[in-house]
Fold this sequence. Notes:
Layout (H helix, E strand, L loop, with lengths): L9 E12 L2 E13 L4 E5 L6 H8 L8 E10 L2 E2 L5 H7 L4 E4 L3 H4 L6 H12 L4 H14 L5 H4 L9 H13 L5 E5 L7 H18 L2 E6 L2 H7 L2 E6 L2 E7 H6 L4 H8 L40 H5 L5 E4 L2 E3 L3 E2 L4 E2 L3
Parallel strand pairs: 3-8, 3-9, 6-7, 7-8
Antiparallel strand pairs: 1-2, 1-4, 4-5, 9-10, 10-12, 11-12, 13-14
Helix pairs in contact: 4-5, 5-7
Amino acid sequence: MPDGATPFVLDVRDLKTVFRTRSGEVHAVNNVSFTLKPGELLGVVGESGSGKSVTMMSLIRLLPMPPAEIRGGQVLFEGQDLAHAPEDALRAIRGARIGMVFQDPMTSLNPVFTVGYQIMEPLRTHMGLTKTQAATRAAELLDLVGIPDARARLADYPHQFSGGMRQRVMIAIALACEPKVLIADEPTTALDVTIQAQILELIKELRQKLGMAIVWITHDLGVIAGIADRVMVMYGGQVVEQAPVRELFANPQHPYTRMLLETVPHIRGARNDKLRVIQGQPPILSKPPASCPFRARCPQAFDRCARENPARFDLGASHDVACFWDFKSGAARHV
């Protein structure tokens, strides 16, 4: 590897994002750090309000500013810090080098423009294609994502597509300029199980064909188990655990991760087994957390958890956790 080169396509360091509201500040992202290798699929999990989507939208500054503000940190992509890049540089990266697929394709697609126009727009803007060239490429992209009679469907409007087909169109738009990174924000949540399985299979195939890195945001641990290489668990706007997918499922080390896994229903469970739930709600942080944000809901919490916000401890095997409790010894960590 050449001097100065990095093995990561994305390197996020101590990212902080704050929202200014009438009732005060909300510290939505707190010192988030992670890396993404070329071709890797990183799953980001956590319940609603844990900071998953805000973190990923902060990477390419898609949040309205104000009220949002990136208060600190770096987002290194191809040697450039996106957290402090000028807006014109970001416009050249969004949709071209970093693509994004949102949760609801009906609200993400513009209802007054044809699907063909919406796929062709990034091709003409970022790649300089003529209208004819862009139309040919748009048809190829629709075919790539499995939409039949692709050339004819370019003239159709979003309402003429089913929910699953609209999500395929969104993926086609995100892939139009062959990005190095694709951020998928719960793209299958609004779809039925059959269509969800088709979209997941499509993403696997496209990842193999195109070799892009993917960040997949979800609250569905079953999806993550089937597609991710590595998992990042978020709570209270920070990373509480990170590990390769098999290691995380076999050896979860944060109480929150363990409780998330316990909420997944098991096929071997008895008929009268109750679904487990995590009591309470994620915190709304009016200031940076000075103590563990999960302590109020944690069965392992003790006095130190109220005094300090734990740093991430390296457990080996690319596994780290932000917790003072050691499940292996059944006691507090001596650090």
